[in-house]
Specification:
5-stranded antiparallel beta sheet, disordered N terminus, binds thymidine-5'-diphosphate
């Protein structure tokens, strides 16, 4: 069943979430808080930038990690596969983010020249949390 909490669909493991924006005549302020667009505590922040045209990133899944991907500048696409299906998202608005939970294979591609992908993550970097081979991911999905 698909349930809605705040502005999120919580039964899927990859979905778009709209972040809270406070606009006034001086511009816009976007705020992200635990349980208001962010369903986890932030333990790590990193960002991708200066990605050469035509270069793909990602191509892995995680066992436990939850992430929120935010197109702080420019645009890029994310193809995501999980037991809830496959979907390609185009991220281009700084207040429209993509949540990716555990067990989601993701590929990031089609970065615009000025793209910055900010990632908020629920865990510190841990290579043992990665599934880096597609065959291993397919096995993981069968056993899930
Ligand atoms: P990688 O996982 O290949 O990046 P992406 O999936 O975004 O294409 O990571 C590139 C390198 O950076 C790799 O050697 C692991 C390292 N790394 C860290 O040390 N800490 C981190 O938080 C991340 C995300 C990567």
């Amino acid at each position: 069943m698909v349930k809605k909490a705040h502005n999120m669909i919580v039964s899927e493991d990859h979905f778009i979430t709209k972040l809270h924006v406070i606009p006034d005549e001086r511009g816009k302020l976007c705020v992200i808080e635990r349980d208001k667009g962010l369903p986890f505590d932030i333990r790590r922040v990193y960002y991708l930038y200066d990605v050469p045209a035509g270069t793909d990133r990602g191509s892995h899944a995680h066992l436990q990690l939850q992430q929120l991907l935010i197109p702080i500048s420019g645009s890029f696409s994310v193809r995501a596969w999980s037991r809830y299906g496959e979907r390609t998202y185009r991220l281009y608005e700084p207040n429209v983010a993509l949540y990716i939970g555990p067990g989601v294979w993701r590929e990031l591609m089609e970065f615009s020249s000025n793209a910055v992908c900010l990632v908020l993550a629920s865990m510190e970097y841990d290579e043992t949390d990665y599934i880096r081979s597609r065959e291993e991911f397919d096995r993981h999905m069968k056993n899930a």
